[in-house]
What does this fold into?
Amino acid sequence: TGIPSPAGAGLALVPMMVQFHFGLDTKIPVSFMLVYVALVGLGMASRIPTFSLKRISVRTESALPIMLLAGLVIASLVTEPWLTLCGIGAVYVASVPISIVAHYRLRTKTSA
It folds into this structure.
């Protein structure tokens, strides 16, 4: 439950990574960062169900596509690190509503 600490740290750095990638010379407003980091912190301290990489099991037939995807992510980290890290953060944030729905479906299925 809640956003794990490493993911929270990465999410807190997303605005800075966007600045690095796009070469923006302007400063991020302090008020925006205050609200943004507070929201990330609340997500870390919340009871929101999130996916855990520890519990993912890979079927044999899925191993090759997952390894190819991992290779692409690693290659993009080498060539476009800031954009890739922002993308990883966006995918993680997009997975939170999916994990909430999956959690409540599993919860209702096991209670029935």
Summary: The CA atoms of residues 12 and 36 lie 8 Å apart. The chain has a mean pLDDT of 85. Helices lie at 5-12, 14-22, 30-45, 63-79, 81-111.
